[in-house]
Amino acid sequence: MSTVIKDGTVVTADLTYKADVKIEGGRIVEIGPDLSGDEVLDAAGCYVMPGGIDPHVHLEMPFMGTYSADDFESGTRAGLAGGTTMVVDFCLPDPGQSLLDALKRWDNKSTRANCDYSFHMSVTWWGEQVFNEMKTVVEEKGINTFKHFMAYKGALMVNDDEMFASFQRCAALGALPLVHAENGDVVAAMQAKLMDEGNNGPEGHAYSRPASVEGEATNRAIIIADMAGAPLYVVHTSCEQAHEAIRRARQNGMRVYGEPLIQHLILDESEYANKDWDHAARRVMSPPFRDRKHQDSLWAGLAAGSLQVVATDHCAFTTQQKRTGLGDFRKIPNGTGGLEDRMPLLWTHGVVTGRLTMNEFVAVTSTNIAKILNVYPRKGAILVGADADIVVWDPKRTKTISAKSQQSSIDYNVFEGKEVTGLPRFTLTRGVVAIEEGAVKTREGHGKFVSREPFAAVNKALSTWKEITAPRKVERSGIPASGV
Ligand code: URP
Ligand code: ZN
Ligand code: ZN
Ligand code: ZN
């Protein structure tokens, strides 16, 4: 059985040309003029692009005393509806828990995925067990990225000595460390002060996490990575200071990557102040939305190449879950959705406005991500032999974003009412049509785990275990990754 995508214009990260694309056995087998096949998909007037890769999602994640509401089924269905054909989720061991035990939970829940997926592993505590298991994770489990939280003090946050040791371990294993860069100590102090002063509403969340706490932590993580001889990927880069630190490091020859989210590119701080409680709480995420100056910096970074990818950090909570934080903003589960809307919004606000070329759009939504995560050209490419994860993009198709018609299982959408121009005509996951003209034809369980090989190791400094001085005592709480 073969499928041909006919009469479209192929758009990749560096080329735009007219061609048909033939698919067999889930892979691209031929690209050229006048191809024929058993099934024909009409792509006239459309762009044929590599399906989107979202490098940052949290599906059914235990967090702040609850679980994020979209699971691997609804989350990947939402992704496909918006042209995303692969997601990378964060495996999150509780502090004190075995990384390999946590991974079993992730293996179980991901079997329902509608599209391919991969995992990052999180380092939420440090000890000889973590050190040893990191090697197994890289060499046997197909995971080459490790996330570190510099925020969420008392829950997921790691200290600098732990981060330094873990970064060195990453370098020795050929893995890429990731950071959530916010100064968790300063955030905790500012949160306590705001609460003392009676500012317990959701806007207090934003006030407690100004751009400086992100700028400082980004800079610190970069310097620690440099000392450890490791590259670095900074998740949800949302402000100018963080972007500047990344740009400077790259100019100095470091491999540092920055990941703006579609939410930070489109929404600003006015979402918090003088809004009803639910409205603001639904938009509580870390880092919070910022002002225009920061947004302009992020857009410029994407065009200039100093920021490389656009993600969602999709971590959706219902209004009911958000209301856990009534009376104390520190208890509002942090996170927003965006999986279905990332590609249409970036096209509308990036390509249609002229801020990004179509090729840059493909680079930041797919190809750059595949390269950074070491799955290129199996993913992120329109090339013979690549997986047929393809979006046939109709630049004329429009819609108004609304919770009423979305795939996500939550009861609202932070982009409610926004118009988009540019949507998938077809989304294909390994050659199977999952979305056709807005109709959802996904197959639960079709998605497969994508194993990612380690990079060439750049530093062997910490290949045997060494105790760090005065290690932090970690006790298992028994509650899944709760706290603020
Ligand atoms: O607020 C956010 N970003 N929630 C998801 C977890 C994280 O920090 O990425
Ligand atoms: Zn984060
Ligand atoms: Zn509102
Ligand atoms: Zn996240």
Automatic annotation (TrEMBL):
**Protein's UniProt keywords contain Hydrolase:** yes
Give the EC number(s) listed in the UniProt record: 3.5.2.2
The answer on whether this UniProt entry bears the keyword Manganese reads: no
* Sections of the chain in a coiled coil: none
Q: Which cofactor does it need?
A: Zn(2+)
Q: Which UniProt keywords apply?
A: Hydrolase, Metal-binding
Domain named Amidohydrolase-related is located at 47-420
One MF term in the entry's GO annotations: dihydropyrimidinase activity
Instruction: Family membership, please give it.
Output: Belongs to the metallo-dependent hydrolases superfamily. Hydantoinase/dihydropyrimidinase family.
> What name is this protein filed under?
Dihydropyrimidinase
Gene symbol of the encoding locus: hydA
